[in-house]
Specification:
By secondary structure, the protein is of the alpha/beta class. Helices cover 28% and strands 25% of the residues. It has an eight-stranded mixed beta sheet, with helices on both faces. It has a six-stranded mixed beta sheet with strand order 8-2-1-12-19-18. α1 runs parallel beside α4 and α8 packs antiparallel against α9. The longest helix has 25 residues. It is globular, with a radius of gyration of 24 Å.
Length: 565
Amino acid sequence: MPPHSSPAALDPVDVVIVGAGPTGLTLANLLGIYGVRTLLVEAGEKLIDYPRGVGMDDESLRSFQQIGLVDQVRNHTTPNQIMRFVNGKGTLLAELDPQTDEFGWPRRNAFIQPLVDAELYKGTDRFGCVKVVLGHRMEAFTETRDGIDVDLIGPEGGPVSVSARYLVGADGGRSITRKALGLAFEGRTEPSSWLVVDLRNDPIGSPNAYMGCDPARPYVSIGLPHGIRRFEFMLMPGEDQAFADDDVNMHAMLAQHVPDPAAADIIRRRVYTHHSRVAHSFRKGRVMVAGDAAHLMPVWQGQGFNSGIRDAVNLGWKLACVVHEVSGERLLDSYDSERRPHAAAMVDLSDKVGKVISPTSRLLAGARDAVFRGLGAVPAAKNYVAQMKFKPMPFYESGAVVHRAKDVTGAPVVGRLFIQPRVATREQAEVLLDEVTGPWFTVIAWNNNPLALLDNEAHRTLSRLGARFIEVRPVAQLHYGTEPEGVTIVGDSTGRLKAWFDQRPESVVLVRPDRFVAGACLAQNTSTLTRQVAESLHLIPGGHDAPRPVLPVALPADGVRASAG
């Protein structure tokens, strides 16, 4: 089909995604892996290319690993970027330099969002069940008893219709989807605006990020991949986009930071207002909202982008289970109960960090500097900040999880991301754990054959779910005996899996496709746990078997997309 043709109706699909930003593109790739017929529609004729996110965390990289695009994405990242907070005199107040890699990747990574979005977009070409159409704006949708009818306007202005079972609005902060659902977008908008400007041929060249807590004009300076420098400047009352578009004003702001502002090679500039908002609900009937359509947060911790990726990964496998009639629709309720509280926590964190950066009162700035000097003098407090232990990690207290009574108040295992160390198998000396488990359900047992722990009913349930079975051993035992049929033996070559199991009584975990622990137990309770997890997933009695995820085919060598839709 030519890129600009507009048929009166598109083929029916299981899921329509509105918005080809990072959330929609990630979800489309996931649904492709899960064999879900998906239509991704984007109002623009091309992907957005103005200044956007620059901070990617380890959870997002793990998600891109899951969809088979982590190498392409990492081409546009600077791993282990340090963030330094400095005051108006350039004095170091605090430093964020987390050393953890518990999820397999560095916790802080600078990146260029338009280039990463382009990789995600190209990635959808790998799936015959996924179609992307640009230049198609959603006008309205109508929920029916069995699905949802979506009305689009094509690039030539003609009407286009498509029917689906579910709709996901990943269409940004001004989301048409959210507004059509009548969902309140609760929160506030900052009174001040910020100018964001990207420069080629980085005039500074430092690889790290600086949060300029300067009361004269708070600023941000970030070294990005491919020789790009990001500056962000707070605009004062009376300064607007017209002020920012004036090169004299632009050069005056840059002059405080670069040797020759007139020689700066500006790629793009844009004025932003920071919002702190969370939708009242992330689901209403057959419609979900995700990414900026569901939550907006200030940029200070780079969590807007990452929170949208978390939404996509949480929602993707649940839609697949429901579409393939493995689970009932009630499973989709857990998307809201799991994701909305954590999104709100990230909004709150971003607000608090913004309050550290943005005071323009010298009195308040001086008090802030004194507090940081005090914290810096206490090694434990300094380490707490440096290792980003203040970052709220996702923890699902309810939803598609099975908690023991003490999990929520004691040392929680369930509802948290499982770790991803490097391990050994009988075929590979070193590999990340998720490469062994695959992108679907997994049963992991320490030093036990997990299949031997199951009764017939539990075995049938996990087989129906398409679960993989992993036995983790000390690496010294890796090649002992015959590998049981249906089980993969993993050698704990770094000792990190043993350390994880050492810290808790449970020796068996059932891990969801999004790598969160759905349940954990002692070995003899594995069958009971399986039944409890099946209930939390709302498995349909006598329903279909779960789809076997399709490993993505390789992208073309030149990475060129065959058609825009």
